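Let's practice the habit of predicting before peeking. Look at the sequence and jot down your guess about where helices and strands might fall. Then scroll down.
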Amino acid sequence: MRTKKWNVEIVITESDRTTQAEARLRGQNAELYVGEGTAHRNRADRDIPHIGDELAVARALNGVSHSLLHEVAAEIESRTGEQVHRLREG
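Done guessing? Here is the structure:
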């Protein structure tokens, strides 16, 4: 059994009613995948900062996930010569 460690760094910036998050994933060969997410608070909403943080981070991580899946599909296609239509979970 082999254990590998990848690191994710998340930076959250708040300004007025907008929260922005940037997620940076470092892969095993120093590949870098970056995702960005934004959350906007409506003027009528109560100011509960952690909700904006969580939403912006979720969106940033989703961006990282899409980037990583795109990279995996491209690598599979280059090795097999066949187009990847969908990557299943599990």
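How did you do? The two ends are 19 Å apart (CA to CA).
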